[in-house]
Design a protein that fits this description.
The chain contains no helices and four strands.
Length: 66
């Protein structure tokens, strides 16, 4: 079920910034990412990805309890 999924992001190329907020709207992570970075986003936490000048290519996986 997607409602139970955490999200894992792997940056394939480029760089940028990822911001993650909690349910109260507080920023819990605001960090630069680059090629090779891995970020885990807990379920129900909103996030934003912003590409840098050279772009940002990433792949995202959703976890599953199955």
């Amino acid at each position: 079920m997607l409602g139970d999924a955490h999200q894992v992001i792997y940056v394939m190329s480029g760089s940028g910034k990822i911001e993650i907020s909690n349910n109260d709207g507080e920023t819990i992570l605001s960090d630069k990412v680059q090629e090779g970075s891995v970020v885990a986003i807990p379920k129900f936490y909103p996030s934003v990805r912003v590409a840098g000048d050279e772009g940002l290519t990433l792949i995202s996986f959703l976890t599953s309890p199955r």
